[in-house]
Amino acid sequence: MTDFPVVRPGENVTRQVLADHPNLMVVAFGFESEGAEGALHHHPHVQSTFVESGRFRFTIDDEVTEVGPGDSFVIPSNAVHGCVCLEPGRLIDCFTPRRDDFL
Length: 103
Hints:
It comes from Yoonia phaeophyticola. By secondary structure, the protein is mainly β. The protein has strands at residues 7-10, 13-21, 24-31, 37-41, 46-60, 63-67, 72-75, 81-96.
């Protein structure tokens, strides 16, 4: 079990760090309702995302893709990306190096 708190970075969105090391961080994002958003943003970290449950419309550098349970993909460093929840669910993201701003 993780000792990290659950935080609310947006409306109907939760975030919890599951594991961290200076070179890698695993984070769970919960989307509680249709229309909840992960706002467009970018960061220097390479990110991989695994869709544990739910359905999402992801935008990565102007390319839009719908994803569902079992899908996974990599977001390159500094790519502008975000998502809209189509069905409530949970994403598991890994970042390298870790996102110190989440600690």
